[in-house]
Amino acid sequence: MISVRNKNGINTLHAEIVSELKNMLDDNNVLVTSFRMANLLILDNMMLS
Fold first, then answer.
1. Phi and psi dihedrals of 34, rounded to 5?
2. Is the pLDDT of residue 48 over 60?
3. What is the pTM of this model?
């Protein structure tokens, strides 16, 4: 296990963990992929309005 003592190191470690979890979910979970696609469609439609 990595020992991190300073605040910046902890934030970096947390960002890496979140990024890896996001990538894993994107690659392996159909519901996550569908949700992201729906979110992009909503955002695109909001920009057109």
1. -65, -40
2. yes
3. 0.58
